[in-house]
Specification:
The chain has 13 helices and 11 strands. It is an alpha/beta fold and 436 residues long. The protein has one domain: Alpha/Beta hydrolase fold, catalytic domain (Rossmann fold), CATH 3.40.50. The strands form 2 sheets. Strands 3-4-5-7-6-8-9-10-11 form a 9-stranded mixed beta sheet, sandwiched between helices. It has a two-stranded antiparallel ribbon with strand order 1-2. The longest helix is centred in the middle third of the chain and has 24 residues.
């Protein structure tokens, strides 16, 4: 890629290489990354200011002259397992069939039973009891997690799986939404300010009377790909030495963004998908959370921003142990991805063939009638506003048909791709309403 200007298929929307890097980081979900940007890091406003025209049928789209043809295919019929189709009248049988097919499509690997959990450290901080945990999965380095709950709490409490965002930064994971000491890494401080208005999201949820578990997603933080484990010609001169150095973190994050396409193709070649691996590992975290004596297994919710919203879509829709979901900054239609927005997104959400059977919001709709809140930002550069509103209409239709109208809410806030304090207040109130 040239170092001066980059022009995508949108034709009339040139933007600088640096702006593209910052856009991708601000998106919270990398899909593609310019070559040679090892020193790039996101430190600005996650405004997601770049957007194509808010039109899902225009001639200008990501696949050019083929977009109209592809859109007409998608518009010609409802997906075959959409609950909106007239032939589906029994909620239970439809949900069972649709979940079964979705699980087949994502090809989730079998990770066995509940992993053996190591408690590596316990302490109190800022009114919270904190446990640093780890467990070994059948592959890769040990998965690490942070558990938080009110200090001195007694009796089983509701549990929350809190999911960190993607953010284009795979070096960090659970630390992105937690605070466990007075000292914060400068990258984490900037990230929390940009995405959460300075709030450590998991801490604030725990403070309200929840046991909160934050696990590193694959391949972030403890689950990240180590440079020493890949062929030398792919390392591009980088190493795992002095990993906490901010410049080395920036270089690793840029390398890991470019490595996404290799990882995705390799997972497809292995007979699985990235959503399948994410779901498998998050289900192990859910096993850990639900098996604890201090957690009420009948009152477990999940939620997160961006990449955390994507994880919410899959586990919220596919695991009935989740009783309440909050998806933030990650909701649109497959058509919006196809025509307008796939280039701003990671490989981590795409499931071959599934769009024939369920539209993207209908994956989360598999949770019906479990309470589901979707929070959108109207100027979110990851999606068109049209796509977000169409997804909201789809989820409303699913919940209305199931007789669970009060269990779904779609909210829209002005502004860019963030999980603001106002949004957080609504999310916390949603958890309180349905889990307490």
């Amino acid at each position: 890629m040239e170092d001066n200007n980059f022009k995508g298929n949108q034709g009339s929307h040139p933007f600088s290489r640096r702006k593209f890097i910052n856009l991708a980081a601000s998106a919270g979900l990398f899909g593609l990354m310019p070559k040679g940007n090892a020193g790039a890091s996101f430190t600005g406003d996650p405004a997601g200011s770049f957007s194509l025209q808010d039109d899902l049928s225009g001639e200008i789209n990501l696949i050019g002259g083929y977009g109209k043809w592809a859109a007409e295919i998608m518009d010609s019929r409802l997906p075959s397992l959409s609950f909106r189709r007239e032939e589906f009248t029994d909620l239970g049988s439809w949900r069972e069939a649709a979940r079964k097919r979705t699980m087949e499509r994502i090809a989730m690997p079998d990770l066995g039973g509940t992993p053996r959990v190591m408690v590596n450290r316990t302490y109190n901080f800022d009114g919270l009891h904190i446990e640093e945990l780890s467990w070994q999965l059948p592959y890769g380095p040990p998965a690490e997690a942070i558990l938080l709950k009110p200090a001195g709490a007694t009796g089983p409490l509701p549990g929350i799986l809190a999911f960190h965002e993607h953010g284009g930064k795979k070096y960090f994971g659970k630390r992105k939404i937690t605070r466990t000491s007075e000292t914060l890494h400068p990258h984490i401080r900037v990230s929390q300010q940009n995405y959460y208005e300075g709030v450590a999201l998991a801490n604030e949820i725990a403070r309200r009377g929840y046991v909160v578990l934050v696990n590193d997603a694959f391949p972030f933080a403890s689950r990240r790909v180590r440079l020493q484990d890949v062929p030398g010609h792919l390392r591009q001169g980088l190493s795992d030495d002095d990993p906490e150095n901010p410049e080395n973190i920036d270089a690793y994050n840029s390398w890991a963004a470019r490595h996404e396409s290799i990882m995705a193709k390799s997972l497809f070649s292995a007979g699985t998908t990235w959503p399948g691996v994410w779901l498998a590992e998050d289900k192990k975290a859910l096993d850990v959370l639900s098996s604890r004596d201090d957690v009420d297994p009948e009152k477990i919710g999940c939620g997160g921003l961006s990449g955390g919203g994507m994880r919410t879509v899959f586990i919220g829709g596919l695991d009935p142990r989740i009783k309440c979901s909050v998806c933030v900054g990650l909701m649109t239609t497959w058509k919006d991805f196809m025509l307008n927005k796939s280039h701003t997104h990671t490989w981590m959400k795409f499931v071959p063939l599934l769009p024939n059977e369920l539209d993207f919001p209908e994956i989360l709709g598999l949770a019906v009638p479990s309470p589901t809140l979707v929070i959108n930002a109207e100027q979110d550069g990851l999606f068109t506003l049209t796509g977000m509103k169409q997804a909201d209409d789809i989820l409303k239709a699913v919940y209305n048909k199931a007789g669970a109208t009060e269990s779904y809410k779609g909210s829209f806030y002005p502004g860019p791709h963030r999980f603001t304090r106002d949004m957080q207040a609504e999310a916390f109130a949603w958890f309180d309403r349905w889990l307490k």
